[in-house]
Amino acid sequence: MNKINHYNGNLIKHSQTLRSRPTDAEKKLWSKLRLKQLLGYQFYRQRVIGNYIVDFCAPAVKLVIEVDGSQHYTNEGIVADKTRDGFLQGCGFKVLRYNDYKVLTNIEGVVENILENINKTLILPGAPSLKRREIRSPIND
Question: Residue 82 and residue 134: Cα distance in Å, rounded?
Fold first, then answer.
């Protein structure tokens, strides 16, 4: 069975609660990911994958984005994140992690790094590189 199609249904309620109470960093990043602003790809917030809830997920390009607060830098957090990342990578996802401070103080750099990683997943070895499309603003649509 494909791991991504199998998820812990008991986490759905908790993921809904997390969506209703995002951190400041999650809000800021979501403002750049929502409405297919990045190369037209759909991102989802607080998505359940297996026994985990990921902050952001773009299934079409198999990308998971995590915004890490201070709890991720404890010994327990580092071990838990390594296990979680291993599971997600086993499902075929690339996992990008950004700390809260970086998202809050350098959102354009974070977005640029996400775009670079999306482009890397789209390019086959030996293929010409894709030109970065402009980031759409929902206000201009």
Answer: 33
